Amino acid sequence: MKYPNFPKDCKSMLCKYLTKDVFEELKNRKTPNGFTLEMAINSGVKNPDSSIGVYAGDKESYEVFDLLFDPIIKEYHGFGKDEKHTSDFDAKKLDMDNPDPKGEFILSTRIRVGRNLDGFPLGTIISKEQRDEVEKIVSNALKSFKDELQGEYYPLKGMTSTIQEKLIKEHFLFKEGDRFLEAAGLNRDWPEGRGIFHNIDKTFLVWINEEDELRIISMQQGGDIKEVFTRLSLAVSELEKDMKFLKSDHLGYITSCPTNLGTAMRASVHIKLSKLSQNKELFKNITDKFHLQIRGIHGEHSESEGGIFDISNRRRLGVTEVECAKDLYNGVKELIRVEKSL
Ligand code: ADP
Ligand code: DAR
Question: Which CATH number is 91-341's, of 3.40.50.620, 3.40.50.10420, 3.40.190.10, 3.30.590.10?
């Protein structure tokens, strides 16, 4: 393997931290599942416009390739290599009202966590047989869910393009063909082993074998962050009765992308900020101050439409689930206060 030929204007964390020395140290290492440095960095090599550019193949990747992952985790999460992550998913600790009780600004709220099964590699090097096994384990467990969480599993294989496009358009289903995931090996055997579970109201959903083996999602119209969080917390604890998730004392829940480690939680609102968004500097100052991330109306790598933005917590590791939700709440309160003042 040769040192990659990064373009001069490459700004990814891969370009920044894969120095020639780190490359020489890591280039011949392999994890117990056979994951190599070349596999870990392929997405960032093929897509030099990546923000991060690196994915893990298993829990061991974060130790075997620590010289590359540690500085990336430090820069993205502000989390040191000797720190320990702690979890707190207790909805009773969320002392918050609805930040937009009249529904003037927030169209909808969505909170998701990524999870991967203990005993399996991550999606980047999982075999087809293993991925099909993950689909079977998770979809079978979901079949027994009751009451508000009761629903049905819809495999992607055999789903009509009309239904697929409608679910994507309505923000319920993952998009296809993301070039970053493609180059990371996460789209292999597509659509085999992939699908979506959802309850009748589409307020509880589980994506199976997209970027992570599970994306567990709670979502609804309006801004009641606490209600969405409470439903998600219940769903995750129900799933934990039937399966063990990959985690470590140091990094919390293990995910394929290092940006999702720890809580693997992204708590977001679709919010209309037509005045504030005209002042890009002020908008960014507020989101930076409150550790928020701005995405477009169709999530990552999409644009906003009609002054509506996807605003979510940026910190996921070294903070608890309760703190992720509070990051969103505190930031949204300030964004609404400033929008009203303009
Ligand atoms: P993820 O959040 O799962 O990492 P994306 O950013 O691609 O992935 O978002 C996935 C889907 O969830 C997209 O269709 C996006 O529009 C939708 N979404 C995200 N936040 C919200 C929200 N607050 N309300 C409705 N849909 C949302
Ligand atoms: N697009 C990849 C991943 C960034 C974080 N988003 C995830 N994991 N979906 C990049 O390196 O830009």
Answer: 3.30.590.10
Q: How confident is the model at residue 129 (pLDDT cuts 50, 70, 90)?
A: very high
Residue 228 Cα to ligand 1 middle (Å): 14
Is the pTM higher than 0.85? The answer reads yes
* Ligand 1 in reach of 308 Cβ (< 6 A): no
Q: Which of 180, 212, 215, 253 to mutate to test the pocket of ligand 2 (most atoms within 8 A of CB)?
A: 180
115 catalytic residue (yes or no): no
Q: pLDDT for 31-90, tens place per residue?
A: 999 999 999 999 999 999 999 999 999 999 999 999 999 999 999 999 999 999 999 999
**Cβ partners under 8 Å of residue 300, min gap 6:** 178
| Strands 214-221 vs 247-248: parallel, antiparallel or unpaired | unpaired
